[in-house]
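Z., the sequence and structure:
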Amino acid sequence: MGQDIIDCARRMDALGFMPSKSGNVSVRTEGGFRITPSGLPYAALTEADLVEVALDGHVLHGHRRPSSEWRLHAAIYAARPEAKALVHTHSPRATALSCARRGLPPFHYMIALAGGDDIPCSGYATFGTQELAEAAAVAIAGRRACLLANHGVVAIGSGLAAAETLAREVENLASEYLDLLQAGLEPVLLTAEEMVAVTAQFGGYGRLD
């Protein structure tokens, strides 16, 4: 699983979603979660550099400092026992939207991949703080993804592949939404009833949970 974390981080880096040292990736473990370290470029990352952290922040294994956003991961894992992995990106289009402190409404049926009829944006808090962790846990409640105000994206999943796929889709949706706004078009939002039908349809083939 350690190499899977590294490979995910490097893919996100190559896409420009987690440039060099930004963002972070974790996978739940029996004792807490295993997370990318602080301040180390993903190109240089090895399995020995990953850090296992208890939900209270105690380092269980590893010689490096965990990501500065370990509190965010801990808060979401504590609140969401079904979450087995978390990907936090600074993908450019979704991050741009977060800087307007706007989430993604149901303008496209793929919004349902995040578990509801929107992808909300959290309240603002300074990076690396408990306040940010708590704001993220509130925003993602009932969802599998959210935006972090003036910051980026959080996506969770039943495994790392699901969390990564969702993080990619949030960026794709943000790009489509911003393109609509830039063109001066008003998105036609799907109704609650239409989103219920979408969710039921996803249950048959494409659900990420």
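The chain is about 35% helix and 15% strand. Strands lie at 24-28, 32-35, 51-54, 59-61, 85-89, 145-148, 152-157.

Let me know what you think.
H.
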